[in-house]
Protein: Small CPxCG-related zinc finger protein
Organism: Halogeometricum luteum
Amino acid sequence: MVFEWISYFDCGACGTVERADAVGYDSLGYPECPGCGARTGPLVGAGATETGTEALD
Ligand SMILES: [Zn+2]
């Protein structure tokens, strides 16, 4: 049995699913969708605002 550490990039903008190692990353380390070019940060879909960590209270 082989366990592969493969993660997948799931674009929230266009729905593209790609292997994470096939996806490019920007200077901040966020994955860039190869299909539509959208960047996906950890807060995308959870209130994509600029408030950042202050929302953790
Ligand atoms: Zn996309």
